[in-house]
Write a structure and sequence with these properties.
Elements: H1 2-22, E1 28-37, H2 41-48, H3 54-57, H4 59-62, E2 68-72, E3 81-85, E4 93-102, E5 106-115, E6 119-131, E7 134-144, H5 158-178
Antiparallel strand pairs: 1-7, 2-3, 3-4, 4-5, 5-6, 6-7
Length: 190
């Protein structure tokens, strides 16, 4: 019985080590990335203010082209909510709400994730004129990973993964906004 008690104690200690370690691992993170787009700030802001336009440049929207989407309210205004549902665990189920708009400068969002896990995360997109024909766009996101799940931050660089996705989204946005619109086809005379 002494051997069993020692074995049980060893198992308890082995299980407790990660839980104690998780007490010292951060739970909150913030990421921010930016890009310069060769377009006036008004044009850029007028595009990103609409949540539904994120379907055109967001990496996450492209993960499941068949996701179910719902909208509530008037897009581009405070209170608009864009929801999504996907069977793809990388996309899950959630919604995004426009919480504040500083005209021509910043849009604040609240992301509410329901599946595969529940979380509420603030995010924002900000525009700043570099000059009359260039705009700096900044995309930021903050998150919270509760104890003891925060232990995974020791093994997975969540900040780098999210930063890469936001940066790719901004690269996609740049491509969309800097690509000239197709010229109308000329009608042959005759």
């Amino acid at each position: 019985t002494i051997m069993i008690k020692k074995l049980l104690l060893a198992v308890v200690v082995l299980l407790a080590i990660p839980l104690v370690a998780a007490l010292f691992v951060k739970q909150d993170y913030k990421v921010e990335t930016q890009i310069i787009i060769k377009q006036p700030v008004t044009l850029v802001f007028d595009y990103i203010r609409f949540l539904t336009n994120q379907d055109n440049f967001s990496v996450w929207a492209a993960l499941d082209p068949n996701m179910q989407k719902t909208d509530q309210g008037v897009d581009g205004t405070v209170g608009f909510v864009s929801g999504w549902h996907s069977e793809n665990a990388d996309v899950g189920t959630g919604e995004q709400e426009i919480k504040a708009i500083v005209e021509g400068a910043r849009i604040d969002y609240e992301l509410r994730f329901y599946q595969p896990y529940a979380a509420v995360s603030p995010a924002y997109m900000q525009t700043e004129a570099v000059n009359a024909e260039q705009t700096r766009v900044t995309w930021g996101f903050a998150g919270h990973i509760p104890y003891p799940i925060n232990l995974m931050l020791l093994f997975i660089d969540v900040e780098a993964m999210i930063t890469a996705d936001l940066q790719q989204g901004l690269e996609n946005l740049k491509l969309i906004l800097e690509t000239p619109a197709a010229e109308p086809a000329e009608i042959p005379a005759g």
